[in-house]
């Protein structure tokens, strides 16, 4: 199929997960100042998923799926969107968006460990160096006074790391799982499933449900961006890339996302960027570079 092998499409998909996803930290941070996190995520993914399936139907894509595909979509939707994203948005209540993006940049480390654990291949020297640098970079990030003196911040940091682990395992799982061949359809189902479970989570936590007409203009704009670009465009691109290139290459979005998120957080929300954060991110991303630049076995 032309689209599947198109180098241009692959480049566009990478640009989407690099830069658009990097900006979603800012828009989630803006939205979560007024909306409860699980409620926010449930609306974002439910609307995006339904729109995707409607578009797929208009283009006459088959929406039929097998029981095994449904089970795999359920698992993927939970790992990526219910836990990986929903809980991450919740953690943004306690952590700056740029700092959260830096923590999320540890994803390639998690992916490497999981792939080595699942595939049972020995780690190369470059990978070992990368892991050590990554761990040191993470230590510098979370050992800053602004983090260690706040219990809420420490909780936010811990939960973000569990979200990164969930997203990383989801990436490995999807690269091997049987899913609908059409990436648009696969994305739509994952989002609708996630939206349903996130809404249940919102109800179980007794979150306040605010009608869109009562949202501020900046939250309405943020939600529109998250649905169209952060959801429909980038998550479709992400699912596509997981099937046409290596999982570790897809994880390199963690290189660019923190830079975009930190800049936007500083420029729009006046978030502070400490010298230690800059040094830590440089060390951490150097470690990730060592991991992804190693020779393939």
- Mean of all residue-level pLDDT scores: 84
Largest sheet: none
User: Which regions are unreliable across 5 or more consecutive residues at pLDDT < 50?
Assistant: none
Find the structural class using helix and strand composition. Answer: mainly alpha
DSSP E strands, number = 0
Total domain modules: 1
C-alpha geometry = globular
Kindly estimate the percentage of residues that lie in beta strands according to DSSP.
under 5%
Secondary structure tally, helices: 14
Q: First CA to last CA: what distance? A: 28 Å
Please compute the radius of gyration using only Cα atoms: 19 Å
Order of helices and strands: HHHHHHHHHHHHHH
Proportion of residues in helical segments: over 70%
In short:
The chain is an all-alpha fold. It has one domain (2-292).
Write out key terms for the chains shown.
79% helix, mainly alpha, 297 residues
Description:
With 297 residues, this protein is mainly alpha-helical. The chain has one domain. The chain is built from 14 helices and no strands.
What does the secondary structure layout of this molecule look like, with pairings?
Layout: H1 2-5, H2 7-31, H3 37-58, H4 67-91, H5 97-104, H6 107-119, H7 125-142, H8 145-148, H9 151-176, H10 183-204, H11 217-244, H12 247-250, H13 253-269, H14 275-292
Helix pairs in contact: 2-5, 2-11, 2-13, 3-4, 3-10, 3-11, 4-9, 4-10, 5-13, 6-9, 7-14, 10-11
């Amino acid at each position: 199929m032309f689209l599947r092998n198109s180098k241009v499409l692959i480049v566009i998909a990478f640009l989407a997960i690099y830069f658009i996803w990097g900006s979603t930290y800012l828009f989630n941070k803006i939205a979560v100042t007024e909306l409860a996190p699980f409620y926010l995520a449930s609306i974002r993914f439910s609307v995006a998923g339904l729109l995707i399936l409607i578009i797929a139907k208009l283009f006459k894509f088959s929406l039929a799926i097998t029981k095994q595909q449904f089970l795999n979509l359920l698992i993927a939707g939970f790992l990526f969107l219910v836990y990986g994203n929903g809980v991450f948005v919740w953690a943004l209540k306690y952590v700056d968006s740029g700092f959260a993006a830096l923590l999320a940049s540890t994803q390639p480390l998690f992916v490497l460990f999981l792939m080595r654990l699942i595939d049972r291949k020995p780690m190369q020297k470059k990978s070992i160096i990368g892991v050590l640098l990554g761990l040191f970079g993470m230590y510098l990030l979370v050992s800053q006074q602004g983090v260690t003196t706040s219990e809420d911040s420490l909780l936010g940091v811990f939960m973000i790391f569990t979200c990164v682990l969930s997203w990383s395992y989801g990436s490995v799982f999807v690269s091997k799982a049987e899913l609908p061949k059409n990436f648009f359809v696969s994305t739509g189902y994952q989002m609708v499933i996630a939206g349903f479970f996130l809404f249940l989570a919102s109800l179980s936590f007794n979150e306040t449900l605010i009608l869109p007409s009562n949202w501020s203009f900046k939250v309405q704009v943020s939600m529109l961006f998250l649905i169209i670009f952060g959801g429909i465009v980038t998550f479709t691109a992400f699912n596509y890339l997981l099937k046409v290139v290596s999982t570790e290459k897809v994880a390199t979005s963690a290189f660019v996302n923190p830079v975009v998120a930190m800049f936007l957080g500083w420029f729009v929300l006046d978030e502070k960027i400490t010298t230690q954060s800059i040094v830590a991110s440089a060390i951490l991303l150097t470690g990730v570079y060592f991991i992804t630049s190693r020779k393939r076995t």
